[in-house]
Amino acid sequence: METPHRPVWRKSSYSDNNGGACVEVARTPLRILVRDSKDATGPVLRFKGQRWSAFLASLKH
């Protein structure tokens, strides 16, 4: 169950299945969370909604 304290992580469709680039994203009411799926207890990037949209737009260019 997804709650602000327990987000549901979803693996990026761009991640490979060979243990390489594995990125997971979770959405909470206030933030978008990003982590390395191989290190579930490691650091997490936290984005506000507009910042997340700007980040994605910068990746597309």
Q: What is the distance, rounded to the nearest whole angstrom, between the alpha carbons of the first and last residues? A: 35 Å
Helix content: 10-25%
What number is the mean pLDDT?
A: 84
Overall strand count: 4
What proportion of the residues form beta strands (DSSP E)? Answer: 25-35%
Sheet/helix structural class: alpha+beta
Widest sheet: strand order? 1-2-3-4
Shape: globular
Give the count of structural domains. Answer: 1
| Major sheet size, sense and barrel closure | 4 strands, antiparallel
Q: What's the Cα radius of gyration?
A: 12 Å
Domain DUF397: 8-60
Protein name: DUF397 domain-containing protein
Describe the structure.
- The model has no long low-confidence stretch (mean pLDDT 84).
- The protein is built from one helix and four strands.
- The chain is an alpha+beta fold and 61 residues long.
- The chain has one domain (10-60).
Structure described in brief:
This protein has one helix at 49-60, and strands at 10-11, 23-27, 32-36, 44-47.
Task: Outline the fold blueprint.
Blueprint: E1 10-11, E2 23-27, E3 32-36, E4 44-47, H1 49-60
Antiparallel strand pairs: 1-2, 2-3, 3-4
Domain DUF397: 8-60
Protein name: DUF397 domain-containing protein
Organism: Micromonospora andamanensis
